[in-house]
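sorry to bug you again but im stuck and you know this stuff better than me. what follows is a protein written twice so to speak, once as letters and once as structure tokens for the fold. id like you to explain what the token line says about the fold, in plain words if possible. anything you notice is useful, everything is just below.
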Amino acid sequence: QVQLVESGGGLVQAGGSLRLSCTATKNWFSVNYMNWYRQAPGKQRLWVAGISRAGSTNYADSIKGRFTVSMDNAENTMYLQMNNLKPEDTAVYYCNNTSAWGQGTQVTVSS
């Protein structure tokens, strides 16, 4: 099973940018598709974006045009570039591959 480690969260003002990283420390060769999810306080975990190893991407409507998902196979890493952040983007962000989840990274956007 893939093991995933996230980084890159933090506190940013509305309109700012952050880049999240998700590195597979084990079994990257088995990855065909990876996802980003987020969970706001008191709410369900929601899917945000996904990318295939071939580079095909999909996005939730709520972040389309502001977030970009990418994958660096040489670095065993998936990224989420988040631009024009809004307070409603505040959440813990998780990366996922099948049944494997990262530990989550907090993103807080102040108004």
About this structure: The chain has no helices and eleven strands.
